[in-house]
Design goal:
The complex is a heterodimer.
Chain A lengths: L1 E6 L2 E10 L1 H17 L4 E12 L1 H16 L3 E5 L6 H6 L2 H4 L2 E2 L2 H8 L3
Parallel strand pairs in A: 2-3, 3-4, 4-5
Antiparallel strand pairs in A: 1-2
Helix pairs in contact in A: 1-2
Chain B lengths: L1 E8 L3 H14 L6 H22 L6 E9 L2 E8 L7 H4 L14 H7 L3 E7 L3 E9 L8
Antiparallel strand pairs in B: 1-2, 2-3, 3-5, 4-5
Classes of the chains: A alpha/beta, B alpha+beta.
């Protein structure tokens, strides 16, 4: 399940449950219009509610990172469940996207406040 | 020795069904919780490959067979689709025909299983065989 809301010019995307090929389709459908219709400086993925992720889900996050970077924005991760660290490391996401413990920390530190 | 077989249409919503069914089946073996999580990732990657690539936009059947016993779980994911022309290239990291996909499906498959065999014939189909061995007493690794 994908939910997003605006907070301090960041689009906060909360991911819950299993992010596989089906979840990746939902992620694109929910997040892309929200990003394009807003004036955000950053996108924050809150992963704390995830119970599963595979390369399809990781690919969807990476795809959003690329879109955000193209428009000059920054993408951040928060709340990485420990059991999923290996997948994110293998996909190289932890080299590309800064990881914070909480959304508040990402907003405070990641947006340069 | 225990066995199971599951067949379903190449729809994305069936990927979750396949990995949950295999994980539940594997729970009858001596796997750790992290082993079961790795099995779920491996099944998800293999079934996603079949769903995305095997039949194009047409309907087609994907079959998952499992055998549990003798200290291991054997999983086979088979389709009767278009096949892979160059299996070695497909197994290479970051080979993907879709910019939204990482091209890491086979890399994840290799990493999350103890043995991996991919057999494919163009016009006939693809069979991915994975073996996961029991690693008793190493919970959390």
């Amino acid at each position: 399940m994908v939910e997003c809301h605006w907070q301090d010019r960041a689009l906060v995307v909360r991911l819950r449950g299993e992010l596989d090929i089906g979840g990746a389709q939902e992620l694109r459908a929910v997040v892309d219009p929200a990003w394009e219709n807003g004036e955000a400086l950053a996108m924050i993925f809150d992963l704390s509610g995830l119970t599963f992720i595979d390369s399809s889900g990781l690919g969807a996050i990476l795809g959003r990172y690329r879109r955000v970077a193209e428009s000059g924005g920054r993408t951040m991760l928060v709340g990485l469940p420990e059991g999923m660290r290996r997948q994110l490391e293998m996909a190289g996401l932890l080299r590309l996207l800064p990881l914070f413990e909480s959304c508040e920390a990402a907003l405070a530190e990641g947006m340069g406040k | 020795m225990n066995r199971m077989c599951l067949s379903f249409l190449n729809r994305s919503e069936n990927v979750g069904l396949a990995r949950v069914a295999v994980a539940a089946f594997a729970a009858g073996g001596e796997f750790t919780v992290s082993d079961l999580e790795e099995i779920k990732v491996a099944v998800s990657e293999a079934v996603t490959n079949a769903v995305v690539h095997a039949y194009g936009t047409a309907d087609g059947e994907v079959t998952v067979r499992c055998e549990l016993g003798d200290g291991r779980l054997v999983i086979e994911v088979e389709d009767k689709g278009q096949g892979i022309a160059d299996v070695e290239q497909a197994r290479t990291a970051s080979f993907s025909t879709d910019p939204e996909r990482l091209g890491l499906g086979f890399v994840f498959l290799e990493s999350f299983s103890d043995q991996l065999v991919v057999e494919s014939t163009v016009g006939v189909g693809t069979r991915v065989k994975m073996v996961k061995l029991y690693r008793t007493g190493v919970e959390g690794e």
